[in-house]
Structure to design on (188 residues):
């Protein structure tokens, strides 16, 4: 383990790899989140408030797309940075590093699932905006036509994505929790 000049601790190699992955992901999602804010603004203008689409219905029609912006920052930037910080704090407090296998499994469950979750939000947002632009102002009809009207597929996709994200983060969090009570090994 090499000591970084700015941190008074040794970082295990698997931590360094995970930190780089999470940090790169956070940088990419920062840019993506900013772009989604612009895309949301421009897309919502394509479904203007009118007699057929009054203000409240307009908000409901564009809200799903607007939520992508915030969720990109939450699950794409803040949570990955929080994972890095949680792992670093554990080491600073003298905790034993968590195992590379746990960190790898947690990371590779969370990151792809978070990409899929955001992709699902984009799909849902554009499904509503494009549906309204196409003349379907009944939002309940639009809701029921997601995934071609197949509610089972929709439930499976949403549930598996969110479950994988939660399990990935839980693996890392539980291992960090356990490591806080374990004595740090002096063997590398």
């Amino acid at each position: 383990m090499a000591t970084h000049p700015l941190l008074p601790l040794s970082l295990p190699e698997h931590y360094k790899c995970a930190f780089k992955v999470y940090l790169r992901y956070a940088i990419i999602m920062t840019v993506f989140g900013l772009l989604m804010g612009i895309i949301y603004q421009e897309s919502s203008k394509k479904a203007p408030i009118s007699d057929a689409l009054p203000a409240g219905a307009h908000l409901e029609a564009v809200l799903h797309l607007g939520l992508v912006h915030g969720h990109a920052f939450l699950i794409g930037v803040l949570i990955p940075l929080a994972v890095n910080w949680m792992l670093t704090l554990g080491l600073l407090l003298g905790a034993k590093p968590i195992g590379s296998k746990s960190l790898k499994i947690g990371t590779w469950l969370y990151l792809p699932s978070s990409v899929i979750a955001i992709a699902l939000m984009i799909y849902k947002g554009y499904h509503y905006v494009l549906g309204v632009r196409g003349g379907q102002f009944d939002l309940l009809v639009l809701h029921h036509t997601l995934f071609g009207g197949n509610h089972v597929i929709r439930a499976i996709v949403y549930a598996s994505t969110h479950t994988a994200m939660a399990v990935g983060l839980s693996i890392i969090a539980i291992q960090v929790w356990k490591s806080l009570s374990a004595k740090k090994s002096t063997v590398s």
Notes: The helical segments are 13-45, 55-92, 100-133, 139-144, 151-181. The longest strand covers residues 2-3.
